[in-house]
Specification:
By secondary structure, this protein is mainly α. The chain folds into 2 domains: 1-36; 37-118. The protein has helices at residues 2-32, 44-77, 81-117. Helix 2 runs antiparallel to helix 3 (81-117).
Length: 118
């Protein structure tokens, strides 16, 4: 039984130490070369600001489409209470989502300006 355990552990240790040595060699190669920043931003505040602006750039047109869609639901409801309720819910959730996207963008702008002053 001990010999069986010994045989199973030995390949595991060889693989582990082989991987460890390979990883250390790759790390030395990576740090030996000059690392370049792949992002166009230099600090964390600018990264958050750019991410929030990208989300707002995508989210605001989508919100406009859903506002138009909820208006269409209001027009096509023609007094039907179920469809009016659906149109009100759609408009409400659209406005909440729009406020969240714009609010996140404003908070990111404020955070970025605060971090720039530090």
């Amino acid at each position: 039984m001990q010999k069986l355990i010994h045989i199973k552990i030995k390949p595991f240790l060889l693989k582990f130490f082989g991987f460890f040595i390979l990883e250390m060699g790759l790390a030395r190669l990576a740090f030996a070369q000059k690392l370049k920043n792949p992002l166009k931003y230099d600090d964390f505040g600018k990264i958050i600001e750019g991410l929030a602006q990208a989300i707002a750039t995508i989210g605001i047109p989508i919100a406009a489409i859903f506002i138009i869609y909820s208006g269409l639901l209001f027009v096509t409801a023609r007094g039907n209470e179920e469809q009016l309720t659906k149109a009100k819910k759609t408009l409400g959730w659209t406005l909440i989502g729009t406020l969240l996207v714009v609010g996140a963008w404003v908070i990111a702008e404020a955070l970025s300006s605060l971090l720039d002053k530090l």
